[in-house]
């Protein structure tokens, strides 16, 4: 029953579109064709953009000249810092770590 209802609605939509095309003036039809040609020549925005891969996160490793024994431990210092963004100021976490002879 639903399929026949959809078929009726689709048929009415096609009939209405045909009536609109027949009753439109030749000047409007020519303008519509010209608009279609201009639109067809423009590149699609999604295909015009090149897809870039995100570069992997780079870690900065700073070596100290001192020898670290096997009992060395990593100590981290963490704090919160303000960042000024276009949407407003936000507070973000920061962390700095280093190896210490234990």
What are the salient characteristics of this protein?
102 residues, alpha+beta, two-stranded antiparallel sheet, 3 helices
Largest sheet: 2 strands, antiparallel
How far apart are the termini? 79 Å
Strand order in the sheet with the most strands: 1-2
Sketch the topology as an H/E string, one letter per element. HHHEE
Shape: elongated
Task: Tell me the domain tally.
Answer: 2
On the 0 to 100 scale, the average pLDDT is 74
**Residue ranges: pLDDT <50 for 5 or more in a row?**
none
* Beta-strand percentage range: 25-35%
Give the structural class. alpha+beta
Q: How many beta-strand elements?
A: 2
Rg measurement, Å: 33 Å
Q: Count of DSSP helices? A: 3
**Helix content percent band:** 40-55%
Describe the structure in brief.
This protein has 102 residues and is an alpha+beta fold.
Structural overview:
It is a single chain. The protein is of the alpha+beta class and 102 residues long. It folds into 2 domains: 2-42; 63-102. It has helices at 2-23, 26-41, 45-48; strands at 73-85, 88-100. The protein has a two-stranded antiparallel sheet with strand order 1-2. It starts with a helix and ends with a strand.
């Amino acid at each position: 029953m639903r399929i026949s209802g959809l078929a009726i609605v689709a048929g009415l939509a096609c009939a209405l579109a045909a009536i609109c095309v027949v009753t439109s003036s030749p000047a409007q039809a020519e303008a519509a064709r010209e608009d279609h040609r201009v639109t067809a020549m423009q590149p699609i925005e999604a295909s015009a953009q090149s897809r870039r891969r995100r570069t992997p996160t780079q870690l900065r490793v700073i070596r100290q000249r001192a020898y670290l024994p096997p009992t060395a431990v990593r100590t981290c210092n963490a704090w919160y810092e303000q960042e000024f963004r276009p949407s407003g100021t936000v507070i973000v976490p920061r962390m700095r770590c280093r190896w210490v002879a234990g």
